[in-house]
């Protein structure tokens, strides 16, 4: 099947993923892909690098018969998001700025658009260009990467924490969860210094180091999340 020449880079990235998916797990060489899309080998290499950096599971297989491979089990086939649904997701994910999930939200949006049908993706981009978000100057400070990855890392963190009075203490903590407010995020953890569950406001964590220690699993009970103000709701994916 011959492709028409794809000028728009975003459309080409989408087409590259689909080309690799079609033959997975067999590899395709950069030269073969360059011929298919009527671009240079260097352009293909730059495009593949951009896809890899966005989290697309593509790897290079060395050797004379090698090339680029795609892990089909970790990618989505074209999805049936409407342009309006995609823009709604973009608006929601934009609100992740200043949360532990900011970086993940950015890669999730790129994956979503890459998995859409080409025409729907183009329509979504045109619709998104007509949507403008007004900032109020009260954006929360970005959560440090080590804190954002605290739960998935599953290791003890050593932090320096500044309390409301300005005093700084060194603590070893076992991350258990997050609590999010409008402009503040808290890392909930078992604090070995205080021998109990504590909520650490992320912008008061002066520094953090991931240790090699994997703590024993610890359950977080509802009583330990008894917040004296506000309504606490558990996040749901349904």
UniProtKB/TrEMBL annotation:
Species this protein is from: Leifsonia poae
Domain Helix-turn-helix type, chain residue ranges per copy: 12-68
Family annotation (PROSITE patterns): WYL
Name assigned to this protein: Transcriptional regulator
PANTHER family: PROTEIN PAFC, PTHR34580
Record-annotated WYL domain positions: 146-207
Membrane-spanning ranges: none
InterPro entries associated with the record: CBASS_pafABC_assoc_protein (IPR051534), HTH_11 (IPR013196), WH-like_DNA-bd_sf (IPR036388), WH_DNA-bd_sf (IPR036390), WYL_dom (IPR026881)
